[in-house]
Amino acid sequence: MTRTSPEPRHRGRHFALVSTVVIAVLVIAGSLLAAAAFAQGPQVRAVTGDPASAVAQRDVVVSVRTDQPLDPSSTEGIALEPAAPMQVEVVGASLRVRFLKSLEYATAYRLVVPALRGQTTGTLSSTEYSFTTPPLTMTTLERGGAFERAEGDDAVVRHDLSHGSDATILSAPRIQEYAESGGDTVAVAVDRDGATSVQLARGDGSEATLPLPGRGDVRLLRASSDAGRIGYVFTGSSEDGVQQYTGVLFLADLSDPSAPPRTVAGLDGEPVRTEAWQFVPGSAYLVAQTTDRSLLLVDATGAAPPRVLGQLGDLLSFLPGTTSVVLGGADGLSILDLTSGSVTDVDGTRAIDAAPGTGRLMLAPDAIATWTTVEVTRGAPGRPGALVAAAESGSRIVEVCASPSGRHLAIGVVPDAGPMDGYPARADRVGRRTQIVDATNGDVIADVEGTRPGWCG
Questions:
Q1: 296 contacts 308 by C-beta, under 8 angstroms
Q2: pLDDT band, very low/low/confident/very high, at 239 (cuts 50, 70, 90)
Q3: 108 with 70: CB under 8 angstroms?
Q4: Fewer CB atoms inside 10 A, N or C side of the chain?
Q5: Which residues fall within 8 angstroms of residue 288, CB to CB, at 6 or more apart?
Q6: Where are the alpha helices (DSSP H) in 347-429?
Q7: 287-to-168, 308, 397 alpha-carbon distances in Å
Q8: pLDDT for 288-329, tens place per residue?
Q9: CA distance 110 to 82
Q10: CB 338 within 8 A of CB 348
């Protein structure tokens, strides 16, 4: 007869008892930890956003995310050092800080939040977030002389205007134009026979030659780090000579430099032909003006279909720090807000008979820079402006561009006696310089060699 032992039932009761005790201990420990967490006030889990972009854009948002819902009173006492206009709001467990104007370059900022308050517990905590904005930089194209010279390269040079240093980022025997995309630089190089190529210089020092649609002419080179693309207008034939292109807009993906460029297609699926186009700042979109003068909004990644904005005027530029398009027409300037689709006329800017070599540039909805060959002024549209800069004797002003934030101007100045350099496209006068000034008071920030400042697009 086999003996039946009572031990298994005893061990089962013991295991159940131990399990119950362990679970109870864990529950109590978890409750104590949760209570302790809430007792110490909201704790920061992450800070999201790109405050560095606030030097060039308005309305940049930085979010401080915590581990619990916040009371609306958490906005009280928040300060930015040095001070700058901002708007603060509580959204769930996050504190959202919106910088209403562009921040200063090369400046260490400190965001002080003295009273984060939990919505449920009412407990308090404090936090700080520090960041440093990038320096004010600008690139220029320094040409080695006339197109038909025997030696000497052209160079794209980056000027660190905050620290007074220069660095060559790309060079070639002859450079027609260039564009920047984050840390990368692309340039249209031309040989002595006029054949063009597109050269890429990476921020890591590597270089590549990008494939073209075929043999032909490349103009209006643009680049966007937000879209991860470059674009240009191409006129010529495909490599096999079958396809002909006239002023067709192409895009290339810099993440795959060996991939062939693709045409930008309109609503009808046909390649877009244009003489004016630009990337939308801070986005993956671009705006192109087609041959019938219509404006077309295009997703450069191809994820969304193109959208016709209408025949609203000539595409001139973007209002600094915004995604609003500045348009020109016989009735004056207007501003197209791409976020709402609204068009606002700028009073006092009706077109008049202007002398050659003059221009105007919108810096803000209520500020415009006007220039002639001898001076640059700034003021409200339709009203006399204050002098910002003047050409020295023996020289004249040929171009004025605004920095991405609109707080600085790049003024192109050439010597009166300077000869043309003879480049087939984008020719300029030998000896051209670029003067950078404060757009408000005219203080000179720097005076550098070179043409085609990167700000001019």
A1: yes
A2: confident
A3: no
A4: N
A5: 249, 264, 272, 274, 276, 277, 295, 296, 298, 315
A6: none
A7: 31, 10, 29
A8: 999 999 999 999 999 999 999 999 999 999 999 999 999 999
A9: 7
A10: no
